[in-house]
Design a protein that fits this description.
- It is a single chain.
- The protein is an alpha+beta fold.
- The chain is 24% helix and 28% strand.
- The mean pLDDT is 96.
- It binds flavin-adenine dinucleotide (FAD).
- The site of flavin-adenine dinucleotide has 39 residues, from helix 1, strand 15 and strand 21.
Length: 447
């Protein structure tokens, strides 16, 4: 398919954010009688779902310590629930099991969920938590769990099928999606002014408005837009930290245990909520009993027919390589550098066995296939949703945004109508102003 010479709205990237923005923008334009999906073109250097959205674990939860994430995630869950079939969405719920050190954090999440009417069950004390979990899984045996938050909404969705479903909905509204078109630069009157044309490997496309949803590739587009590679960040302590790299990479650790997904059914024979466990109990190898860690650790998992087993992950690690030298391509399982290794497999399966007896002795069933992928993180590991260069909306979710299908809806409303309160805490100016999000005791950079 050839590229158009002009598109009123040009979306770069056919992942969750590009597709969701295009689809919702089409609906907004139509409902206001000011245009339609025909005014929107999505270009992708590869194809729909070729980035992080196409390999994501697919977990959808409200569980964030940061209050600003609460209503934002609830809004996204509304969007997932609006068309579960097209989005390949399984509303099984989500359980966070946590140790005492996280008690206060989780309690405040439960309180805030209660305040906004987001249904969840909060359980305290080691005995009550154990009873609660054994009522769901009779082989539950995780140690040092004193807090449980069971979100009744959320769950997970199948990564690539959901992207295809979203793409089909956008196309039905008249949006054009063109694959194999790579953005290589931007044309404008001056370095700081509005984008007039987007340069691609197939020629230039003139446009009135640009939306960038390029996930792990955001650093390269950011630099093409001549935005700062390093910034000053005013910390929560009021001190200004100079020259902080705008983008760093983390490596996501995920894999699949090649067992029948039915193995992880509940006592009542249903498919269970996604389970996320953080604990400070020592973790021993299920293979040979050696100590793997005596530090706080965390895993998440769910039975998943799309992955063909019990799939999940553990805390990611920060890539130490200078961000300028990190090779994002080839991406995901195709990367020679950033896939999980056998150490991950041993840790994750041992952790599964720590939590539930049914996983003891299953390490040999771990699927020996490349998995995992990298993400581009902001200085505080939280998203930036903002307009740059007057007409360029950047959706940079700091790599925890598969669940954030609703961002595209809010962005579409900002583009055609008015600023959205839910997006305000995620503006770029927060770094200079010191309006950072609070930090939790979780072992993850995104909770
Ligand atoms: C292994 C893994 C597991 C994850 N699990 C979860 C999870 O369970 N829940 C959750 O909420 N989040 C999860 N995430 C994070 C989530 O997947 C990402 O935050 C989200 O998918 C990013 O969506 P996006 O639309 O911004 O980018 P992407 O989905 O990465 O899409 C970007 C697109 O832009 C295209 N592109 C890039 N550069 C250019 C260019 N120059 N020109 C044209 N096109 C370009 C790419 O080809 C790609 O298709 C996970 C991430 C990883 C890596």
């Amino acid at each position: 398919m050839g590229i158009p010479k002009h598109s009123k709205y040009l979306v770069i990237g056919a992942g969750i954010h590009g597709l969701s923005t295009a689809y919702h923008l089409a609906l907004e334009l139509k409902s206001r009688d000011i245009g339609s999906g025909k005014d929107i073109v999505i270009i992708d250097k590869t194809d729909v779902g070729a980035g992080a959205s196409g390999i994501a674990c697919g977990v959808i939860r409200n569980n964030y310590f940061q209050p600003a994430m609460r209503e934002l995630m609830a809004h996204s869950v509304d969007v997932w629930e609006s068309d579960p079939e097209a989005f390949s969405y399984y509303p099984v719920g989500y359980i966070q099991a946590a140790p005492e050190i996280m008690h206060e954090n989780v309690e405040s999440i439960a309180q805030q969920q209660n305040d906004i009417g987001y249904e969840s069950v909060f359980v305290e004390s080691e005995k009550q938590c154990s009873d609660y979990m054994k009522n769901i899984f009779n082989d539950w045996q995780a140690k040092n769990i004193t807090t449980i938050l069971h979100e009744k909404r959320g769950g997970y969705a199948n990564n690539l099928p959901s992207m295809k479903g979203l793409a089909a909905k956008a196309k039905d509204e008249g949006v054009q999606i063109i694959s194999n078109v790579q953005v290589t630069g931007f044309k404008s009157d001056s370095a700081a002014s509005a984008i007039k044309e987007v340069e691609t490997n197939q020629g230039n496309i003139a446009c009135d408005y640009v939306v960038v949803g390029v996930g792990p590739w955001v650093k390269s587009i950011w630099e093409m837009l001549e935005l700062p590679k390093a910034i000053d960040v005013k910390g929560l302590d009021g001190k200004v930290h100079h020259d902080i790299p705008m983008w760093v990479y983390w490596s996501l650790q995920e894999g699949t245990l090649g067992v029948d997904p039915n193995l992880q059914k509940t006592n009542s024979g249903d498919f269970p909520p996604v389970v996320h466990v953080d604990t400070d109990a020592p973790l021993y190898s299920d293979a040979d009993g050696k100590l793997i860690t005596d530090q706080l650790w965390g895993i998440y998992y769910k039975p998943d027919f799309n992955f063909g087993g019990v799939q999940g992950g553990a805390a990611p690690f920060k890539i130490k390589t200078n961000p300028d030298d990190v090779k994002v391509d080839p991406y995901g399982p195709d990367s020679p550098d950033y896939i999980v290794d056998e150490k991950f497999a041993e840790m994750w399966v041992s952790a599964l066995a720590h939590c539930q007896k049914r996983f003891e002795g299953t390490l040999p069933k771990y699927k020996n296939e490349a998995s995992g992928g990298i993400g581009a993180f902001t200085p505080d590991s939280f998203p930036v949703f903002d307009v740059f260069r007057e007409n360029c909306y950047i959706i940079a979710d700091s790599n925890h945004g598969y669940k954030m299908i609703g961002i595209g809806k809010l962005v579409a409303e900002e583009i055609v109508c008015e600023k959205q309160k839910l997006l305000e805490p995620f503006r770029f100016s927060r770094y200079a102003e010191g309006k950072l999000h609070p930090v939790s005791n979780s072992p993850y950079p995104w909770s």
